[in-house]
Write a structure and sequence with these properties.
This protein is about 5% helix and about 40% strand. By secondary structure, the protein is mainly β. It has one domain: Jelly Rolls (Sandwich), CATH 2.60.120. This is Cupin type-2 domain-containing protein. InterPro entries: Cupin_2, GPI/OXD, RmlC-like_jellyroll, RmlC_Cupin_sf. Keywords: Metal-binding. One of its GO terms (molecular function) is metal ion binding.
């Protein structure tokens, strides 16, 4: 039974207390972690799924992958390199990236001291609707 969408306000404390998630197999997806903020499987929301992702300093990364849903990144801390369809672009705090559906993309943090953190948004009711297909391994990654 799905919830009816309701307005939601998440406080900084709510977000801080959320558990971090990650890929079960970091060798497939990378060592990125995230906190799911809005997803109809967890919140009384619909239409959009969002969260905060983090790549740790000194080599944190989300490996190149594809999914059918378009995605937006808004970098809120640090800087790194995003790759979309083989083209690399440096990104930093305040930058916004639009990633078309089914475009191969990934992001990495080469900074030695500061984590790279970005807000991600999908046009999907719930995070579980987004199927990651990693370039190194065409099988569905386990979340």
């Amino acid at each position: 039974m799905s919830m009816v969408a309701q307005p939601i306000v998440l406080s900084a404390r709510d977000i801080q207390n959320m558990p971090e998630e990650g890929f079960l197999d970091g060798s497939t997806g990378g060592n990125v972690t995230w906190k799911t903020l809005l997803s109809s499987s967890r919140t009384s929301s619909d239409t959009l799924t969002s969260g905060l992702a983090r790549c740790a300093a000194k080599g944190g990364q989300l490996k190149c992958h594809r999914h059918a849903h378009a995605e937006i990144y808004h970098v809120v801390q640090g800087h790194g390199t995003v790759t979309i369809d083989g083209k690399q672009q440096e990104v930093g705090k305040g930058d916004v990236v639009f990633i078309p559906g089914n475009s191969e993309h990934g992001i990495r943090n080469d900074h030695q001291e500061e984590d790279l953190v970005w807000l991600y948004v999908f046009a999907a009711d719930k995070f579980e609707d987004v199927v990651y297909r990693f370039s190194e391994d065409a099988t569905k990654a386990k979340l």
